[in-house]
Amino acid sequence: MVKYIGKKLELKIIRGYMKIAISVESTSDLSKELLQKYDIKLIPYKIYLGDKLFKDGEMSTEELFAEVDKTGVLPKTNAINSFEYAEYFNDLLESYDAIVHICLSSGLSSSCQNAINAANQLDNVFVIDSQSLSTGIGLLALYARELAEQGLSAREVYEKANARVKSLQVSFVIERLDYLYKGGRCSALARFGANMLKLRPRITVKGGKMGSDKKYRGAMDKVVAKYCADTLEEFNTPDLNQVFITYTTATPEMVAAARAALETAGFKNIYETHAGGTIASHCGANTLGILYFNDFKSE
């Protein structure tokens, strides 16, 4: 295994012989099936629910919401520290030659900087700040795996995946603002007004941070249809190879509305995934998003 390639003396690794681990955190919201299919490694966040501590993924989203409804206590998530990342990376390096790890946006958590700090102490560990969340991270992971399978080096995978961060379209629509309010991300007045008027905000991730740029009104299946139409019209150069429908909880009608919009748009692979506990802790029930790369270029 080549540890270092000098500027003048280039030692080439034979294509296909470098075993690269593609890694994410539980905030990627990738299903167990997708993690296994694409050999993507995962380190979970930890979630506190009152005096209970569990790893993200040990409790279903529905169970988490039921516990919050019962106790009135909002879950709290902990950033993964540098020591935990170092242990995790070292374990992976026993089986892989290199790691490309994709983090939750540094604008949303200190975990990304902690991962970078740990990686700086190791060889052949590359950390990407996704500037994103949920299956926006998942899209980057699937792309990184595709690049690795083509025989690119870990640095090449890192550079190409990192360059595509700016092309992510990450957004979702929220039924109620209760969780954002409890988490300190909106005011009591905004929450009261939105819930009274049944306003459903669209949340977008730009510059690595969340913000609301549109509001809808009415039943959530109709809202989802309008949200998808607006998003596809605004971000209108999608890579049609794959798209995610990701939700905390959702009615069949909500999911059907999103799927119909994406099928009409011509997406080839439409993945449905549940948001895990970390993302759900900030968004609440009946939150649904469509996420894709918006960087298609015609020949």
Description:
With 299 residues, the protein is an alpha/beta fold. It has 11 helices and 13 strands. It has helices spanning 32-37, 61-71, 82-93, 111-119, 135-149, 154-163, 178-182, 188-196, 220-234, 252-265, 277-283; strands at residues 20-25, 40-43, 46-49, 52-55, 76-78, 98-103, 125-129, 168-174, 199-206, 209-217, 242-247, 269-274, 287-293. The strands form 3 sheets. It has a 6-stranded mixed sheet, with helices on both faces. Strand 6 (98-103), helix 4 and strand 7 form a beta-alpha-beta unit. It is globular. The chain starts with 19 loop residues before the first strand and ends in a 6-residue tail after the last strand. Mean pLDDT is 87; it is low at 1-16 and 184-194.
Topology:
Blueprint: E1 20-25, H1 32-37, E2 40-43, E3 46-49, E4 52-55, H2 61-71, E5 76-78, H3 82-93, E6 98-103, H4 111-119, E7 125-129, H5 135-149, H6 154-163, E8 168-174, H7 178-182, H8 188-196, E9 199-206, E10 209-217, H9 220-234, E11 242-247, H10 252-265, E12 269-274, H11 277-283, E13 287-293
Parallel strand pairs: 1-2, 1-6, 6-7, 11-12
Antiparallel strand pairs: 3-4, 3-5, 8-9, 8-13, 9-10, 11-13
Helix pairs in contact: 3-4, 5-6, 9-10
**Main sheet overview:** 6 strands, mixed
The largest sheet has its strands arranged as: 10-9-8-13-11-12
Number of helices: 11
Shape: globular
The share of residues in extended strands comes to 25-35%
Helix and strand run: EHEEEHEHEHEHHEHHEEHEHEHE
Distance between the termini: 38 Å
Helical residues, percent:
25-40%
Spatial extent as radius of gyration:
20 Å
